[in-house]
Every structure is written in C-alpha cells, then in structure tokens.
C-alpha cells in the first residue's frame, strides 16, 4: 500500500493548477456553461487523453492522473465536461470520434440519463432495432455547446453503444428518434466508463471540499461578531474540525479509488464505496460551509455556495449515495470481514 | 500510489494470521468474540504468549524487545490480532509506560522496568485523571513533596482502569505548585501499589462491570529514583504517551471483526420469512458502516506512512475521533440486531439466546466510554481545529 504521489504526478498537478487557474471564469448559478478556452488548455495539457493508451491517441497515464486534474478543476470551481469526456472516450473504444475528443477538436459527452427515471446504468426506455434508436435522453450535459453524444440503447442482443456526431437538441433534451446514429459496439466498456467517470467526479468533489473548508476556516479567522473573531466560538470550531475529518476520510477513499482502478478498471465495489463516502462528505462539508459563513454564504458573488452547488450536482451524477449504498447492501452477504489490502 | 501488499507483506500477514489463530487459546478468543469480561488470567495468558513470540511490544526499541517493523507491518500485526479476537497486549504496559520509559527513563530505570513490563511480570495502571481534573488534566492536584531520597504523595486518582489487578501505577503528580504554568509543575512517578498509604476502591459502571477504580494516596513514600526523567517535565511525557501512537489509535481490525460478526448475527435472527440480514434497512446499515470503516482504515494506512517518529500529531485526533465513533456505531448495530433477545443480560441455564445477544446491551453501554477516554472527542475536535486548522479560540 502506497499513498504517495510520484514526482511526475506532482508536476502534473502544478501544471494543471496553472492552466486551470489562468482560464477559469467566475462561477454563476445554474447550468454549467462550456468554456472553450479552458477546454483547449486542458487539451494542450494532454488532460483529455490522460488515462488512455498512447497507441489509442492517449497520454498513457492512468486514473490517478485523471483524478489529480479533476481535483484542480474542483478546487477553483471550474465546471467542465472532464468526467463526461473521459467516459465518452472509454465508451467509444476504437471509434474515430475518440481521437477528436482527446484532441479537444470535438466536445463529446455521454448521454446516459432518462427523464424522470432514477439512475441506472442500463437503458430502460431507450431502445434500438439494430439500426435506428428510439427514446429520449435528458439531461444531456453541456447540450448548449452542441456536443457529439455517445449513448447506450437496449436491443435484442443486449445493450449497445451508439455515437451521434451531430445531434439535434431541444435544450438539454435529446429525442433519439430520427438522429443519425452510428453503432459503436456492445457494452463491454460501460462499467469501466462509469467507474472512471465516478472517480473523476469524486476527484473534483475532493477539490471542491478542500476549497469549501479552506474558505470556511479563513472566514472563521477573519469575520468578527460580538467584538471577536468567530473562531472564539467553540460551537463553530468543533464543527470545522468535523468538516476536516470528513474531508480527510474522503481523500483517503478517493485516492484508494484511483489506485484501485489503476489496478482493476472493473472494480465497481471500491468505486461504490468511494461514491458513498464522497457523497456523505460532500453533503456534510457543503452544508456546513454555507451555515458557518452565515448570510454571505448564500450570495452568488461569494464562492462558497457554488462549491456546495457543484457537490450537490456530483452527488446526483452517476448514481447517488442511495443507489451505491443499495448496490453495496445487496453484496454484504457475499463476504465476511472487509478486506481492503489483501 | 499502489494498492495492495507486496509478496513479503502478504507472507507476513499470513504468518501473523497463523500465529494469532493457532497460538492464542480459542477459549480466550471466544470470550472476546462474545463480549465477555476477561479475567486477569485470560489477559495475562494472552499477553505472555504474544511476548514470547515478539508480538507484545513491537513498537518498542529493538534492544528492549521491539521489532524493526515498518508501519505497514505494525498495522498488519494489529489488524490480524484484532480480526482473530486476540486481546490486545495490556495497553498500560505496551503502549503507555513502556514507550515513555524507553524514551525518557534513565538507563537504570530501563533495565529495572522494561523487561518485566514487556513480559507483564509487572501489571501497570494509569494514574492521570482526578475527580476535579478530567479533560482539564493539567489542573491535577495530587501532590508529591520531596523529602530526602523520597517523595511523599497525597491525593486521589480516578478512572484507573484495571487498577484492581495492578502491581504498579504511573502517576502524574504536582511537584511545583508555584510553576508559572500548571503544565510546568507536573512530574511522573512510578509507584508500587503495595506501598503503605495506597488504597484502591472499585467504581461500578453502567454495564454492571468493575473495570475502573479510585486510587487514594495518603502520605505514600516513593523512592526518588522512581521519578521518570526530570522533575516537572511530566506533562511532556504524558503528552507523548497520549499522542505517540498512530497505527493503533483507531481499532479498525476490531471494528472489521465486529461488522463481520454482525452479519452472522443478523443471519441468525429470524425476521418474517427470512432473517434480519435480508432486511434492506439492516443490510444498508452494514454496508454504510463498511464504507465508514473503509474510509477510516485507508486513512490509518495513509497517515501511518507519513508518521514522524513519536511526536504527537494532530492527525491522531482524526483517528481517535472516528475510531471511537465507529466502535460505538457497530456495537449499537449489534444490540439492535439482538433486539428483544438482548433484554435479558444474564445467561441463565437453558437459555436459547446466545451469549453475544445477552452481552449486546452491556457491551454497547460499556463502549460509550470510547469517545470519553484518552481525550474526549470534544477535546480531539479542539486539537484538530487549533492544531491543524489554526483556529485559535
């Protein structure tokens, strides 16, 4: 067991922090807006192809590196299609669209949600007869930027993956009927894509939680009420200590998720645990960060609430705490004692 | 970053597993599993077997019986011990006074005390808390006045765990009542419990057990060579004692063992047409606790790798905080699983209810102590907020 980063990984973090910091825009409430300047900076950094093999057009690094970049995005509240694109590339496999996605010449996102349907990795009402698709995907992330889309559909031979290069959207809604879709393959990569996407989202959450706590600690030191800094009140500092505890426990789980996927990209048991831990920590830290700030935490001009908004979004992406806990609960009978290191 | 154990570490784990599950008597391990109170003989038998195999005090310096193990090896040692329901080596000896003497004691003191401390030929107890000094330990009032080659000790200690079995007590005493700061007037004395003037009185706890005591000192004359280190430096030694251990702060192997048992217990309780383990609320609670446990255990492994040689570290506070909370959560779960079968504590002849269910409530109640002793969780949060976050109240 080794939790240390290599020198190369530390350098990557620095480079990502620098590039992301130069291209970030102030967060605004509401749906995420695609920032093409940021996207090109990430492409230039190699971030979009980071975990993929070099012979497939990637950088030959792995999930640990992708998590590092994601944490830097989360730290400054930059909402991008990073997790989406890495998932899309995984699903696309050998398809030519994957190369364009990694280069940043084409924004490609997965469309995996169905309107008013709880999360499931398996399509229910999206179907295929082998050529045409039927059904609706909504919401599709970053639809306003007119991305290409990768989606799954249920057919006679199980779940298949399709690429739609130039879909026609109706807001964030994508009616698949009549769209020109290309069959990419089966769902062999679906689990890997979901695991990687969930890890990247958790990495982003880690950065967001760090910043939310950091802002809160600074605020407790500087804000005065009753003639003294807020940090004189134990009812506040004890809660900040709990936030820190949540953060550090989540950090361990997220690092472990990354090293687990580096060894076995199919390890969804570890990823579900990580998502549960991250979900609980994100909710705790996000809520307390606003509360300990008081009124200023509610304002759009102050950063802290935006972190909470993003953490909430991450909680509801790719299966929430309830979903992943349910998946874990169904498996508790399969083993006795937890064994993480063996 | 790398997941998993190397071949050597896996081999070490196998050896530890075999040792703990074959050399420590099954009868003792069954009692631990069922949450029964261990006798002095049980604890001594287990400790001595561990010591004979170099597994009682591995964290000590090698020359005094320690092992040159990595942090990960020490983690594996502890994890396997707890998974096998082996009682820990007596903490007052192995984790508390032993390392203090090894670090701050004179050569003479080391020779006199360390070998019998490792072998449990001396049973130690801890004289820290007093009736008026709980979390505010530095306000302690037991005094030691130098008189020739002796100190004369007067005062009272409390919460002295297993003091009824103890041969010796390591005692914090006030040697300089005029020190500018309370912390600067405290010394650590080693006192033979048989010395005239020492009285032990039991305290019964809410689980019905007798685990802790009051200890009274009335003109107790203690040879001056039983002072640890220097006079008035006792606070430093106490801080070292409470904060030098990171690997063992959170009993993750114990929690793991209990959670695995909770599954077996739930599968043995009928509910509807199946068992409690089929109940989605019960399995979700188990799954959630496994997530919490995973996060804690991974944090133990992560911070152990960064430990800096014996210095108190605020990161230990996270482990103490979450470790005690999770211990309590898993015992709460087990008591809930036992449900109505937990209502009779005593195990009368002919009972169809297994031992663990009779014990579930007293064990649950007993471990409410975990978030109070060794620095309460509120104190730990204070250490985190001031020591790590820089929030100075």
Question: Mind explaining what this structure looks like?
Answer:
The complex is a heterodimer of chains A (342) and B (393). Chain A has 342 residues and is α+β, with helices and mostly antiparallel strands. Chain A is built from 10 helices and 10 strands. The radius of gyration of chain A is 20 Å and the shape is globular. In chain A, 51% of the residues are buried. The longest helix of chain B is centred in the last third of the chain and has 25 residues, at 280-304. In chain B, helix 5 runs antiparallel to helix 6 (107-118), helix 5 packs across helix 7 and helix 9 (280-304) runs antiparallel to helix 10. By secondary structure, chain B is of the alpha+beta class. Chain B folds into 3 domains: 7-89, no CATH class; 124-231, Butyryl-CoA Dehydrogenase, subunit A, domain 2 (Beta Barrel), CATH 2.40.110.10; 245-388, Up-down Bundle (Butyryl-CoA Dehydrogenase, subunit A, domain 3), CATH 1.20.140.10. In chain B, the strands form 3 sheets. Chain B has a 4-stranded antiparallel beta sheet, with no helix packed on it. In chain B, strands 1-4-5 form a 3-stranded mixed beta sheet. A two-stranded antiparallel sheet of chain B has the order 8-9. Helices cover 45% and strands 14% of the residues of chain B. The chains are: A alpha+beta (342), B alpha+beta (393). At the A-B interface, helix 6, helix 7, helix 8 and helix 10 of A face helix 8, helix 9, helix 10 and helix 12 of B. Chain B: Belongs to the acyl-CoA dehydrogenase family. Chain B: Residues 7-119 form the Acyl-CoA dehydrogenase/oxidase N-terminal domain.
């Amino acid at each position: 067991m080794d939790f240390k980063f290599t020198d190369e990984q530390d350098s990557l973090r620095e480079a990502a922090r620098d590039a992301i910091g130069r291209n970030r825009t102030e967060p605004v409430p509401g749906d995420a807006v695609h920032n093409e300047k940021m996207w090109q900076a990430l492409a230039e950094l190699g971030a979009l192809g980071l975990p993929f093999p070099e012979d497939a057009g990637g950088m030959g690094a792995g999930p640990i590196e992708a998590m590092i970049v994601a944490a830097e995005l989360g730290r400054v509240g930059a909402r991008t299609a990073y997790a989406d694109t890495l998932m899309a590339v995984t699903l696309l496999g050998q398809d030519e669209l994957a190369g364009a996605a990694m280069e940043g010449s084409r924004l490609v996102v997965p469309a995996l949600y169905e309107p008013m349907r709880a999360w499931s990795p398996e399509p229910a009402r999206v179907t295929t007869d082998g050529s045409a698709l039927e059904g609706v995907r909504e919401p599709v992330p970053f639809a306003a930027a007119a991305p290409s889309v990768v989606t799954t559909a249920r057919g006679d031979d199980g779940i298949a993956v399709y690429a739609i290069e130039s879909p026609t959207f109706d807001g964030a809604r994508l009616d698949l009927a009549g769209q020109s879709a290309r069959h990419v393959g089966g769902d062999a990569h679906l689990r890997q894509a979901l695991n990687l996407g969930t890890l990247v989202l958790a990495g982003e959450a880690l950065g967001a939680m760090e910043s939310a706590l950091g802002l809160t600690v600074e605020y407790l030191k500087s804000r005065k009420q009753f003639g003294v800094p807020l940090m004189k009140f134990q009812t506040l500092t004890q809660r900040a200590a709990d936030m820190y505890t949540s953060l550090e426990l989540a950090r361990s789980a997220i690092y472990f998720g990354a090293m687990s996927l580096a060894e076995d990209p199919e390890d969804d048991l570890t990823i579900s645990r990580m998502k549960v831990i991250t979900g609980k920590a994100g909710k705790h830290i996000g809520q307390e960060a606003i509360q300990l700030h008081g009124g200023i935490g509610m304002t759009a001009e102050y950063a802290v609430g935006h972190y909470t908004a993003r953490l909430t979004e991450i909680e509801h992406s790719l299966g929430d705490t309830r979903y992943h806990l349910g998946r874990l609960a169904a498996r508790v009978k399969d083993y006795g004692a937890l064994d993480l290191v063996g | 970053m790398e997941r998993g154990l190397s071949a050597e570490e896996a081999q070490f784990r196998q050896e530890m597993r075999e040792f703990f599950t074959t050399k420590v008597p099954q009868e003792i391990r069954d009692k631990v599993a069922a949450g029964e109170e261990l006798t002095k003989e049980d604890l001594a038998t287990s400790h001595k077997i561990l010591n004979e195999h170099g597994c009682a005090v591995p964290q000590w310096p090698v020359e005094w019986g320690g092992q040159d193990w990595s942090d990960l090896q020490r983690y594996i040692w502890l994890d396997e011990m707890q998974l096998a329901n082996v009682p820990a080596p007596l903490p007052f000896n192995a984790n508390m006074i032993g390392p203090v003497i090894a670090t701050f004691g004179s050569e003479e003191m080391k020779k006199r005390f360390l070998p019998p401390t490792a072998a449990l030929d001396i049973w130690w107890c801890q004289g820290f808390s007093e009736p008026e000094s709980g979390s505010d330990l530095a306000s302690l009032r037991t005094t030691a006045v130098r008189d020739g080659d002796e100190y004369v000790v007067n005062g009272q200690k409390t919460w002295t765990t297993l003091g009824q079995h103890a041969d010796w007590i390591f005692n914090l005493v006030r040697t300089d009542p005029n020190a500018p700061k309370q912390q600067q007037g405290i010394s650590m004395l080693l006192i033979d419990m048989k010395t005239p003037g020492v009285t032990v009185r039991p305290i019964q706890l809410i689980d019905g057990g007798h685990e802790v005591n009051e200890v009274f000192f009335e003109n107790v004359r203690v040879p001056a060579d039983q002072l640890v280190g220097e006079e008035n430096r006792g606070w430093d030694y106490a801080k070292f004692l409470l904060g030098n251990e990171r690997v063992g702060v959170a009993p993750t192997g114990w929690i793991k063992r209990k959670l695995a048992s909770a599954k077996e217990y739930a599968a043995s309780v009928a509910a509807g047409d199946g068992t409690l383990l089929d109940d989605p609320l019960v399995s979700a609670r188990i799954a959630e606790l496994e997530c919490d446990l995973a996060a804690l255990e991974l944090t133990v492994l992560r911070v152990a790798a960064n430990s800096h040689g014996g210095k108190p570290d605020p990161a230990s506070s996270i482990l103490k905080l979450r470790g005690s909370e999770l211990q309590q959560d898993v015992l709460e779960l087990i008591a809930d699983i036992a449900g109505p079968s937990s209502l009779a504590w005593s195990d009368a002849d002919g009972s169809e209810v297994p031992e663990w269910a009779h014990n579930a409530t007293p064990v649950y109640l007993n471990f409410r102590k975990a978030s109070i002793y060794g620095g309460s969780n509120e104190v730990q949060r204070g250490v985190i907020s001031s020591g790590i976050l820089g929030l100075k109240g």
